[in-house]
Amino acid sequence: MALNENLTKLISVSAPLWAGEAEVVRTYWDSSIRNRETDLLWLRRQCFKEFNGKGLGEHKDLGIFLGPLTEIIESFPKIDNGVDRHHILGLIDTIHDEFGHYCLFADVYDSIKSDDDPPLNPQELQTWEWDKVLTDMRIQQNHTHGSIGVRASHFTEGGYCTLFREGMRLEGRGGADDRIAHACREIYEDEFGHMIGGIVGLNDEPLSDQEFELMTDLVQKQLRARVKMRNEEFSFPLTDQRVEEIYNGDIDPEPFDFEKAEAMIGHG
């Protein structure tokens, strides 16, 4: 069974922006701006996202770690008495995965920092301008458009795993690059199947053409913000002009794994 026309269109408008985010990371690896300090900076920023990222419709907008944890605590007296146990199990899995990803990047940070560099303290990690723009955009869309906004936020989460895919390609270069590649491979293997499954899940959603049109608009806005978020995270390896060119479609789209997606539908 093939993906429906609306979902195929959503993927086609997303693919150039996924490619833009991948280009940011790929360019950074061999950029003259890259050094140990910029590596430590993007690792701190990525640890912030893994530990305290928000905007995906989490419980009370508390973030991907504290949101599910708070929901579990509040739901504890209601398990199988108003709250489905499998919902709680899913929240526990989410916490395990996200905290595991934080640990992987934090371990890379510790492995390359010097004695003079500050140790990681997740309570002191900070967001940055375009990460905050993206987060605020998602929360506003979630609150304004309800389930369509939340679906859009989940669709864009991870940018089709571009950071992890490009990080995996550092394998074999030695030193910090191999440690980054290992962390990215572990996370990619966690995330890719879930991400594809989430996209495929939209295939069976009873959304009207108008709802898909709205979601496509929300997704494009978020993915554009993601390119700038990632560019700032990695100390601006792309110029503003290049970002605008990406926005205008001057880039080869990121290939989408339609075969795996359609196989998931077939086994659904």
Structural category: mainly alpha
Summed up, the helix count is: 11
Helix-strand pattern: HHHHHHHHHHH
Which residue ranges are poorly predicted, with pLDDT under 50 across at least 5 consecutive positions? none
Please tell me the overall pLDDT.
Answer: 91
* Cα-atom radius of gyration: 19 Å
Biggest sheet details: none
**Number of β-strand runs:** 0
Describe the secondary structure blueprint for this structure.
Elements: H1 5-29, H2 36-52, H3 66-75, H4 85-112, H5 129-145, H6 147-156, H7 162-168, H8 175-201, H9 209-233, H10 240-247, H11 258-266
Can you describe this structure?
About 70% of the residues lie in helices and about 0% in strands. It has helices at about 5-30, 35-50, 65-75, 85-110, 130-145, 145-155, 160-170, 175-200, 210-235, 240-245, 260-265. Helix 1 (about 5-30) packs across helix 7. With about 270 residues, it is mainly alpha-helical. The protein is built from eleven helices and no strands.
How would you briefly describe this protein structure?
It is built from eleven helices and no strands.
Keywords:
268 residues; mainly alpha; 11 helices; 68% helix
